[in-house]
Amino acid sequence: MRVIASLMRRLRSLSGRDAGNVELREELEFHLTRAVEEKMALGLPECEARRAARAEFGSLAEATEDSYRARGVGWLEDLGQDVRYGLRSFARDRGFTVVTVLTLALGIGACTAIFSVVNAVLLRSLPYGNAGRLVYLYTPLPHFTDVPPEAFGPSNADFYDLKRLSKSYAAMTLFSQASYSVAAADRLERVGAAKVDEDFFPTLQAGPELGRVFTAGDEQPGQDHVVVVSHAMWQGMFG
Predict the structure, then answer these.
(1) Low-confidence ranges of the chain (pLDDT < 50)
(2) H, E, C per residue of 177-236
(3) What's the rounded Cα separation, in Å, for the pair 206 and 131?
(4) Which residues are 185's β-sheet partners?
(5) Residue 220 and residue 216: Cα distance in Å, rounded?
(6) Which pLDDT does position 68 carry in this prediction?
(7) Would you tell me which of 184, 196, 201, 209 could form a disulfide with 237, CB atoms 3.0–4.6 Å apart?
(8) 191: nearest Cα among 218, 224, 229, 155
(9) Which pTM was predicted?
(10) How many CB atoms lie within 10 A of CB 197?
(11) 133: closest CA among 88, 168, 185, 101?
């Protein structure tokens, strides 16, 4: 049994990297032998010829290792060894494995969520025409310390004065966000919406997939029961 185990270890040592190194070493030794023969043909004694050839070639072990690395497969073997070592470590301590996997999952999930927000808010352009030229006007109210200042837009009177007198903007629109109850079929749902004026879609340089946007006539008393619904609401609530 000891002999069989010894042979198995020997076979394993000759697989993968070791087998490749043996082939490289045999090739280098062949070139070394040829160099010795060439120097002996020039008249040098065998011992001096061998010494001179080894001085030119350097260490066979180092040359073998350098040649193996130069083939570009060393990193694959190192990766395989690291993976095998990691799997064996996880198999030995399953409690540590569970904690590690959960920690990685939470970390990756948190990073993905944060990046999604940053990408949507800071990196990716808004889906409107000339998004880089859009600005949001609000009215700071210092006595509301617990509310972000941008939560308060200008009043209707202030907005129309700004729109009439300002020369700095190509277009201006007024909107106010709120929640509304919508009855569809046999159910009632609360949805987020916004009251807007006729210039909302032209200012954003956006339009609907189907139908039309608001017009000046929709702002008249008794004519304001007009809505533009999102694609998701169109499909989800109205089929």
Answers:
(1) 1-16
(2) EEEEEEEECCEEEEEEEEEECCCHHHHHCCCCCCCCCCCHHHHCCCCCCCCCCCHHHHHH
(3) 11
(4) none
(5) 7
(6) 60
(7) 184
(8) 229
(9) 0.47
(10) 19
(11) 168
Minimal CA–CA distance to 163: which of 197, 130, 129? 197
**What pLDDT score does 59 carry?**
61
The residues, ordered by sequence, that sit 6+ positions from 213 with a Cβ below 8 Å of its Cβ are 198, 200, 201, 202, 207, 228
Question: Which neighbouring-strand residues pair with 183?
Answer: 188
Task: Say whether 40 sits in a helix, a strand or coil.
Answer: helix
Give the CB-side neighbour count of residue 236, counting CA atoms within 13 A.
11
- Nearest Cα residue to 217 out of 225, 229, 208, 228: 225
State the Cα–Cα distance between residues 200 and 134, nearest whole angstrom: 12
Look-up of token digits 């200008």 = 154
CB 105 within 8 A of CB 66: no
Do the Cβ atoms of 150 and 136 come closer than 8 Å? Answer: yes
Q: Which residues pair with 195 in a beta bridge?
A: 176
Find out whether 188 and 182 touch, Cβ atoms under 8 Å. Answer: yes
Spans of all domains in the chain: 2-78, 131-238
